UniProtKB/TrEMBL annotation:
Keywords from the named record: Chaperone
Molecular functions (GO terms): protein dimerization activity; unfolded protein binding; zinc ion binding
Stored PROSITE patterns: CLPX_ZB (PS51902)
Protein name according to UniProt: ClpX-type ZB domain-containing protein
Species whose genome carries this gene: Amycolatopsis azurea DSM 43854
GO terms of biological process kind: protein folding
Ribosomal protein in keyword set: no
InterPro entries: Znf_CLPX-like, Znf_CppX_C4_sf
Family label: Belongs to the ClpX chaperone family.
Domain ClpX-type ZB: start-end pairs: 1-29
Superkingdom in the source lineage: Bacteria
Amino acid sequence: MVAGAGVYICNDCVVLCADAVKKKPAGLKRATPVWEGVDDAALLAHLPRIEAIRHLVDDDLRSWVGEARRRGISWDRIGEALGMRRQSAWERFA
């Protein structure tokens, strides 16, 4: 998935992903990381964008977990879905 509900990706990355999907048959090795083609200044300039996206994703995850709890889904099941223990899920999202 490149873009859709609950997915946060910048426009430049959408273009890169679309190009990769068109060109890369299944089963090939991972492409060279994007940062290998940029200088230090560009890499540092990109970090705040990544941090902002992380905050959006965290907020979205909290909303999804909140809805799961509103529906009565147990902390055990939420933790299992997130690959963590019930206690860890509760501490992070309660």
